[in-house]
Amino acid sequence: MTTEEGALRFQSHAKVPLNETAPYESCGIFLSFLAYPHASDVNHRAEFVRASVIWAIAKRAAGDLNWGEQPLCIKPYFLTGDLGEVRKIWLRGAGHLNRRIICAEKIFIPVLLNAIQKRGRPLSGFAPTLENLWLEVHPLLGLKETSKATFLSRTWKESRPVMPAAAAVWLWMRHRATTAKASYGESLLHLFFSLADLRELLNSTEEFRELADEVKRFEIRAADTMRFSER
Q1: Dist CA 59 CA 134 (whole Å)
Q2: pTM over 0.70, yes/no
Q3: Which of 63, 102, 123, 181 is buried most deeply by CB count within 10 Å?
Q4: Do residues 137 and 102 lie in contact, with contact meaning Cβ atoms separated by under 8 Å?
């Protein structure tokens, strides 16, 4: 995909305003671009921001009763809509997020590390080719081994522009996870209430973008990936 095609098809620049009084909204905006990177997905992103904010507030309030009793600054807009539909929107978007993060962990990062350490050197005993990495990723995505063509034309094509951001999220979650089995949802909950960590992720995303040109094997270029900024 050329830079021009990427600019037409995908959002080239994502602005994430950091809101001190409503950090959960800032996080929702950031994650909405990962879930829906398509330039025409404005409505899907807006719906996902609302759904993710409701999810984060409800989940934290359920796990921290003292926090749940404290006054909270929240836009009335976030309290509108059918809760059943809101849950469906959250689960759908969270599924997209999960696929992006899996692709970053199992494809983007291994190939990037391989390129940085020594070009062409096998990684963990095997060469980082799509055939080998596909064997790692398809069970995690719930796909059949014969579904590689569909994966490339849909999941991977849609995920490529946000691979640097997804890699930054995966690395951040890996450092925060208290157990090996901690779900990405549990790890992400903290992010909704920490602007410092969100700012760190935005900076890490740009660092991964600068390295993206090393990943020649899967046609990822910095110019074809989404740039994030605070404003």
Answers
A1: 34
A2: yes
A3: 102
A4: yes
